[in-house]
Amino acid sequence: MSNDLGRATRELMHHRPGKKYTEVRDELLDWLDGREETPGEAVAIMTDPANEILCEDCGWTVGMVCPECSKGCGCETDCTGWRHREYMHPDDLA
Length: 94
Ligand SMILES: [Zn+2]
Ligand SMILES: [Zn+2]
Known about the structure:
Number of helices: 4
Order of helices and strands: HHHH
Bound molecules: zinc ion
Structural class: mainly alpha
Number of domains: 2
Strand content: under 5%
Largest sheet: none
């Protein structure tokens, strides 16, 4: 487990230029908190381009982007693209 964590941390460091080992390890541990993925699986998910954050305001990832509006994220409320219905928080639909 600890070896796995060390390897995964170094892998993730390639994607976090300028960050210290301990910072990257903490980010990884935060991510893993309460999840069942191994450190290696976590890094694969965290570094998948589709899982990069697209918009900090609404938290949509690149994999969720809507091709039908200019913002392409959850901040666009007038777009009728199916992704907005799919990903909108139920409380926002009213
Ligand atoms: Zn849209
Ligand atoms: Zn947004």
